[in-house]
């Protein structure tokens, strides 16, 4: 929903593949089939009750805002709500009004629609020029036959109204610990797993964070294994959409990614239901199966395009990337991954997934509304679901960084990959040594002191470009201080 002073837009965005772009009309068919379904079946009162419950829960347990943002938002709401609703009026739902709902649904019609399709394929066909940024576009009226088709869409069994959300939490009790500590406690460290736990005694909210790192030597063995791991993560997330949408509505969130050493699963949300979500994700990861060639090729195409589009990234991102390639012990190049993905098959992906989950070492961290006994049980449940043999300590991948000699200066200069870009990127980093609490704190203070004068000199006074910043940085246990500049008026030599 996009809201303006006196009008609003209800927006539906669909990301299409190259094949999907050939079926735009059918995609719009599906949108109006669902809207028609909702209009016919009407919204059941329990849907409102569920949404109201989620809104109240999120309002009760939301995180604190910065004072200036909170004061500004309150001042804005004073213009919109009566006094008794200024604090919560924008967050809570009060009374179900089916007449208003029906009124809004009745306005979501093809004759009130603006359909926008954006694709590279329209290059050369778009001839009109937008006056502010010079963007090329083409505009035309929709055929009356299409509008009539969308006004009376056929019903399909593939679409259905929402079901009750099983992830909505009900237990908001806080756990207590007899010996609260300030740092995480190591509860387990053996051949199969390592477990860290920190019971929250600061924020006192019924929320929990769960981090699971599944270490495997197969993740980063070669460019092909990296590509297969990338595809595996994308495929798992694609399959999880059916479940995680409800979880996100109920205040849960998750991320699944990978590094050179491990698959990393993070879950955050309410402690009553988050373990259910994490266990579901782990089960889907371990029992991964893909029988659909069409889905595989869709994900493969999307992954390949992400590699191909690397050259179109900003120059400063290229500088960051090549710096990491130079400083890290093992890092496969994007060009190598782009070449490898051309040859992988669905069978390769299935074989890689089975081998990857056959032997693992799991490192877990539980923080928030959880005690030691519960965290231990949750990890045991996850390990039982995974069912993997332990990885030998000698097999665990250890990432290393290249040590830079001092006081030697190293310069790596390459032409910008995107020949159409007028910008140059410069990344300067200073290797400070092995990470420690003292060095980390010192570097943070130093970075804070330099942040404003660096920006003022390079951005405000010299006006080198819009992207100018300095910060502390750490990678693979090594502490750095770095400065980044992207400019269209000066070369890196400047």
> Which spans have pLDDT < 50 for at least 5 consecutive residues?
none
Percent helix among the residues? 25-40%
Please identify, by name, the CATH architecture of the largest domain: 2-Layer Sandwich
CATH superfamily of the largest domain: Metalloenzyme, LuxS/M16 peptidase-like
Tell me the β content: 15-25%
Name of the CATH first level of the largest domain = Alpha Beta
Counting DSSP E segments of at least 2 residues, the number of strands comes to 14
Main structural class: alpha+beta
Structural domain tally:
3
Q: What does the average pLDDT come to?
A: 93
Largest sheet: 7 strands, mixed
Number of helical segments?
13
Can I get a quick summary?
The chain has 494 residues and is α+β, with helices and mostly antiparallel strands.
Structure description:
- Residues 446-493 form the Coenzyme PQQ synthesis protein F-like C-terminal lobe domain.
- InterPro entries: Metalloenz_LuxS/M16 (IPR011249), Peptidase_M16 (IPR050626), Peptidase_M16_M (IPR032632), PqqF-like_C_4 (IPR054734).
- GO terms for molecular function: metal ion binding; metalloendopeptidase activity.
- Belongs to the peptidase M16 family.
- Keywords: Hydrolase, Metal-binding, Metalloprotease, Protease, Zinc.
- By secondary structure, this protein is an alpha+beta fold.
- The protein has three domains: 18-151, Metalloenzyme, LuxS/M16 peptidase-like (Cytochrome Bc1 Complex, Chain A, domain 1, 2-Layer Sandwich); 185-395, Cytochrome Bc1 Complex, Chain A, domain 1 (2-Layer Sandwich); 401-493, Metalloenzyme, LuxS/M16 peptidase-like (Cytochrome Bc1 Complex, Chain A, domain 1, 2-Layer Sandwich).
- It has 13 helices and 14 strands.
- The strands form four sheets. Strands 5, 6, 7, 8, 9, 10 and 11 form a seven-stranded mixed β-sheet that branches. A three-stranded antiparallel β-sheet has the order 12-14-13. Strands 1-2 form a two-stranded antiparallel ribbon.
- The protein starts with a strand and ends in a 7-residue tail after the last strand.
- The mean pLDDT is 93.
């Amino acid at each position: 929903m996009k809201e303006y002073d006196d009008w609003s837009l209800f927006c539906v965005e669909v990301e299409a593949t190259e094949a999907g772009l050939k079926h735009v009309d059918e995609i719009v068919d599906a949108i109006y089939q669902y809207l028609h379904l909702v209009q016919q079946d009407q919204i059941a009162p329990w849907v409102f009750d569920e949404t109201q419950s989620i809104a109240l829960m999120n309002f009760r347990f939301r995180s604190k805002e910065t004072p200036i943002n909170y004061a500004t938002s309150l001042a804005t709401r004073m213009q919109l709500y009566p006094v008794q609703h200024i604090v919560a009026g924008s967050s809570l739902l009060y009374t179900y009004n089916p007449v208003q709902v029906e009124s809004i649904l009745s306005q979501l019609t093809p004759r009130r629609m603006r359909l926008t399709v954006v694709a590279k394929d329209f290059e050369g066909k778009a001839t009109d020029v937008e006056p502010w940024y010079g963007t090329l576009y083409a505009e035309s009226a929709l055929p009356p036959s299409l509008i009539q088709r969308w006004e009376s869409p056929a019903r399909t069994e593939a679409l259905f109204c929402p079901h009750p959300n099983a992830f909505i939490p009900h237990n908001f009790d806080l756990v207590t610990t007899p010996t609260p500590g300030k740092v995480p406690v190591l509860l387990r460290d053996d051949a199969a797993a390592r477990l860290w736990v920190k019971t929250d005694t600061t924020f006192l909210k019924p929320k929990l964070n769960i981090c699971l790192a599944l270490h495997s030597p197969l993740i980063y063995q070669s460019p092909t294994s990296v590509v297969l791991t990338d595809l595996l993560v994308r495929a798992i997330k694609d399959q999880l959409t059916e479940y995680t949408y409800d979880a996100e509505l109920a205040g849960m969130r998750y991320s699944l990614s990978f590094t050179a050493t491990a698959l990393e699963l993070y879950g955050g949300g309410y402690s009553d239901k988050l373990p259910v979500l994490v266990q579901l994700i782990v089960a889907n990861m371990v029992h991964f199966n893909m029988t659909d060639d069409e889905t595989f090729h869709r994900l493969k195409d999307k992954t390949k395009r992400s590699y191909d589009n690397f050259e179109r990234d900003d120059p400063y991102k290229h500088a960051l990337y090549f710096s990491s390639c130079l400083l890290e012990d093992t890092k496969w190049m994007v060009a190598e991954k782009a070449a490898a993905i051309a040859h992988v098959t669905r069978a390769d992906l299935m074989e890689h997934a089975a081998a990857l989950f056959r032997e693992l070492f799991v490192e877990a961290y539980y923080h928030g509304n959880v005690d030691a006994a519960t965290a231990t049980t949750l990890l045991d449940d996850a390990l039982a679901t995974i069912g993997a043999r332990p990885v030998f300590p000698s097999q665990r991948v250890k990432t290393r960084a290249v040590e830079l000699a001092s006081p030697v200066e190293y310069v790596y200069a390459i032409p910008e990959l995107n020949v159409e870009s007028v910008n140059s990127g410069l990344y300067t980093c200073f290797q400070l040594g092995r990470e420690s609490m003292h060095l980390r704190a010192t570097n943070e203070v130093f970075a804070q002191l330099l942040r404003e004068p660096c920006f003022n000199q390079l951005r405000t006074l010299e006006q080198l470009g819009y992207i100018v910043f300095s910060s502390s940085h750490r990678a693979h246990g090594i502490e750095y201080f770095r400065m980044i500049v992207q400019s269209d008026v000066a070369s890196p030599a400047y």
